[in-house]
Amino acid sequence: MSQNNTNDNKKNEVTLIPFEVLEVATDVKEIPEGVKLINAPAAWEKSEKGKDIVVAIIDTGCQIDHVDLKDRIIGGRNFTTDNNSDPKNYSDISGHGTHVAGTIAATENNQGVLGVAPKAKLLIVKVLGGENGSGPYEWIINGINYAANWQGPNGEKVRVISMSLGGSQDVPELHQAVKNAVDNDILVVCAAGNRGDSKSDTDELSYPGSYQEVVEVGAIDLNKKIAIFSESNKNVDLVAPGVDIWSTYKGGGYAKLSGTSMATPHVSGGSALIIKQSEKEFERTLSEDEIYAQLIKRTDALGNSKRSEGNGLLDLAKE
Fold it and tell me: How distant, in Å, are the alpha carbons of 10, 77, 88, 158, 289 from that of 100?
């Protein structure tokens, strides 16, 4: 068991939301419980499993040759000093970004795990370096701006940004980068953070998660109880599974992790399904406001304080 810890003394850094590696395996074959809990399989037919919707993962990179991920990756860039600062080498040292990627879009191949949107495309934006995943705000800002302006080989654009990272400082340039992405009609999905104290009436704030413009995701366990570590504040939008989550991991294997980091990609992948289904039905491109409305429509209140659960648990079976 290992624990990745943030160091709040490093005010100029953004770090991974702390997460716990509970178990590692070389072979898994399942639809993970979290994917089932948000009823993703019920939405797969109408949403074409999120086919070709591009989700940018702003994280520690990704193991690009992982059997469950290699067919989903459309491109990427490294903004860190890892991998000799090669911008084209966005491979993952930590394992965290690889785990997030699998929850969003692990492909259908009769092995490993299955993601929430198994036909979505992934843009891998590596902004956190080293084993523990940290980096200056500048890397994160550059990564968000890159994702917001990216165009694929066939004119594809990023529709969802997924960020399971956070810092203690509200940096104006970070906030502006988030606003620019939202202005480009990109849904920005962020982890609430793991410094929760189990009291819904106290504020714990991590950035960019606490910005009004983002979709802030808290964590529940597989029994639909608020995770003890999940941060509460007035900007939490919804919750998703973030305890005992199996997904892809570095070394070509799989791992079970816990954290709001793990809840976030459930919502990012779910948003890809919602965009695909809704735009087929409306026969046009939806604005970020409209995507958010469709997302929040698909939630179930769990009876906790809104500061802990926002609108409730993501339920992709709802329409």
Answer: 24, 17, 20, 17, 25
Counted residue by residue, the chain has a size of 319
pLDDT tens-digit map of 173-206: 999 999 999 999 999 999 987 665 566 666 667 8
* Backbone dihedral angles phi then psi of residue 108, each to the nearest 5 degrees: -85, 110
Where b means 16+ CB within 10 Å and e means fewer, 201-230 reads: eeebbbbbbbbebbbbbbbbbeebebbebb
Does 59 participate in catalysis according to the annotation? yes
**Known catalytic membership, residue 92:** no
Prior bond to 208 cis, omega within 30? yes
Which is the catalytic residue, given 66, 92, 94, 96? 96
3-class DSSP assignment, residue 112: strand
DSSP label at residue 25: E
| Mean local confidence (pLDDT), 267-271 | 98
**267 vs 256: CA distance, rounded Å:** 18
pTM: predicted TM-score of the whole model, two decimal places: 0.93
Let me know: does 273 contact 295? Beta carbons within 8 Å: no
Amino acid 111: pLDDT: 87
Pick from 203, 188, 195, 146: nearest CA to 167: 195
Examine the residue annotation and report whether 315 is marked as an active-site residue of this protein. no
Which of 47, 230, 261, 278 is catalytic? The answer is: 261
Residue 311 neighbours by CB distance under 10 Å: 18
- Counting Cα atoms < 13 Å in the Cβ hemisphere of 222 gives 12
Rounded-to-5 percentages of helix, strand, coil across the chain: 30, 25, 45
260 vs 292: which has the higher pLDDT: 292
In the chain, the domains with their CATH numbers are: 2-314 (3.40.50.200)
